[in-house]
Amino acid sequence: MGGRRIQEDIQRLKKSATMLSGSSESARNALLRSIREGLSRDWALIKEANSLDITEARESQLSDALIKRLVFDEDKLASVQLGLSQVATLKDPIGEVLERRLLDEGLLLERVSFPIGVIGMIFEARPDALVQIVSLCLKSGNGIILKGGKEAFRTNSALVASIKRSARSSPLGEEWVTLLESHSDVSSMLKMDDAIDLLIPRGSNAFVRYVMDNTHIAVLGHADGICHMYVDESADLQKAVACAVDAKTQYPAACNAIETLLVHKSVAEEFIPLVAAALSGKGVSIHGDEATASLIFCTPFKEGDYLMEYLALELNIRIVQDIEEAMEHIASYGSRHTDAIISEDKSAIRRFMRDVDSADVFANCSTRFADGFRFGLGAEVGISTAKIHARGPVGLSGLMSSKWLLSGSGQTVSTYSGPEAKAFLHTELDTEGQSVIAGDAK
Amino acid sequence: MGGRRIQEDIQRLKKSATMLSGSSESARNALLRSIREGLSRDWALIKEANSLDITEARESQLSDALIKRLVFDEDKLASVQLGLSQVATLKDPIGEVLERRLLDEGLLLERVSFPIGVIGMIFEARPDALVQIVSLCLKSGNGIILKGGKEAFRTNSALVASIKRSARSSPLGEEWVTLLESHSDVSSMLKMDDAIDLLIPRGSNAFVRYVMDNTHIAVLGHADGICHMYVDESADLQKAVACAVDAKTQYPAACNAIETLLVHKSVAEEFIPLVAAALSGKGVSIHGDEATASLIFCTPFKEGDYLMEYLALELNIRIVQDIEEAMEHIASYGSRHTDAIISEDKSAIRRFMRDVDSADVFANCSTRFADGFRFGLGAEVGISTAKIHARGPVGLSGLMSSKWLLSGSGQTVSTYSGPEAKAFLHTELDTEGQSVIAGDAK
Predict the structure, then answer these.
(1) Fewest CB within a 10 Å sphere: which of A79, A240, B122, B177?
(2) Cβ-defined contact of A401 to B388 (cutoff 8 Å)
(3) Lowest mean pLDDT among A190-204, A252-266, A363-377
(4) Cβ–Cβ gap A391/B410 under 8 Å
């Protein structure tokens, strides 16, 4: 595909995205369902493409972990089809009235949710992520430009071909989605400032960091997940053991698993042997600071441990003087993702929740709750550690922008200016009910 | 000020910003009031600094327009002092509960508004903009790094010195605000990715465009303001004349003034002479396409006119075949700032408001209403044409992020996972009332 061909595709995609943003909820949901059915219709082709990708990956001696993520089998198919059905049942994110204010009689202001425009999705290996993000973009009325890893190119192409085949017979058409060729590089996508409104990278920390550092386009995501749990002097130690074990071992490869346990000095002697026994039972190896090492058997702490995202059954334990030292540790070493306090002291909890500047700040529960589905967001677009646009687990709302709609009857600003200026009413109105743009438009 | 000194200042500023984010509403409002009084206390010093800047500007033969913007006299003082009082009366933007959901009994999730962190403000000439943005950052609990034009350096330094003098005796201290030296260049500020969470440039279009194109930091603002008014076939032509005249002439230098009037062919013959007469009466010179030139006396249209932001009493008029052609013109030439339709046809209005992808889309009123004060936002941080974070006129909410607070009683994710998983409740709760972090914290 040459540069001009890509440019033309993207022009059509932008136009198609505009059409999608104004399309009816029923048309978008119907297409989600027909994409689901289309994947069954085209299953033989997808399966064939996937086995070619896997054969080549084996020949190229790619790692087993990567090959596992590359597999798109009947289980993955069933899972993405279930996802498509669920996304179809979510509430329509377009046209929600976010603010409504009567500026004056006959001059009504509304701020209404509206798709961002064009999402750029760059992902490593996993073809199931492709179907998931396409479904979320379609639901939310956004166009999408996809760029997958070259090891999955045949599978991704077969999936996009199937999606486009289903879309072609829909009133929404097929041009709102495009897959960039395998040989076009990621760096060219990072320069598509004019075409892409928001980038969503999915892959390793290093990959996400590379994307963030090499584009002027807004990025939704997170690189590191260095999460902490602080066990306060007033903690219920049984709760603390249960939460720490869950936060480390329930799924250690997750970004919201803890890497360091901070323990108040006044409970250290009682708590650390307890938690160490529970963690050892789950196979966790502990890196302890000097004070911890005097209480339990552990690997001695070494420089750099507090900056490690182990993503494995390894955990740092550090004894701190007080809540200040715990919060300073989190500010210095954390990645502002998810941090928790275990405490029975309401005042300490308030302080920790107020002063720890992370996307998710928890009290008396596991950090593993930081997740779009557990949070009840319906779907998860990603977890963002940025403070602009969307922060923490992000649902469909992360794919939405808004616009201001002002409906008048001939009003001019000169009426509200100068020495005889008429005053504005600025009456806040209920945001229930449909916006002024709901209903048929010719 | 050397590089190390700046780094140290910024470290202290980030720490101070964290303290500010957790400070009480009353402490922030008290400091706003004492800054207001402090400006009177230090007026002699500020006035002296400003006259030195103005003398030097005259000697350097800077333009009268620039010198006018540089002046900080008793009127400007009164105006920024009034602004400080008003900002003190605004509702506290910190700690508002944006979402509240019971995940399960005893497991409460809240999303709470929280300051972004550190705002970087880069502005040309106007010293009054400095006081305004400092007041908005203080109110919203954000630290601020300021960089003004070198022609205003003495005035800006005197203003910041006064603000810091007032802050020093407050419990909030003075370290949350810093002014970069005149010789430190803008480009070094644009690289402060680690220190600055959001950049707000204030100045010419070219300046804002330069900032947007040369930083990885999120930018709140807009470069061009190429706004349109479309007069539909069903328009009330009296309303159309009044709105067009207001939109062009009420303040032609504003970003939300119109540059092009699009007129449906079926009303052109009646409307164009009417509006031309009214506009001529206000001194507007018209650039007309060929069809318009056959109806009225005007400057013939030339290539590039549709991309001009005149910021003056000049206006393009183009006759279009239908609403589609009008919307295509806006999509091709507009800057997605503010566009309006004049029409009595509800279906056409809905379509225009739905399909025009601009920050503000208006019906039957002047584009000049696109403004934070007119919109009732209380204060205006800026107008953004980006679709990420904040769009259109932006109030204090544009300086806010949010964080997720989850309060439990020892819950672990393992309870809600696997074959015997407990189901989540996900009960939506009212967002009225204070968040779990309100109240005293030790």
Answers:
(1) A79
(2) yes
(3) A190-204
(4) no
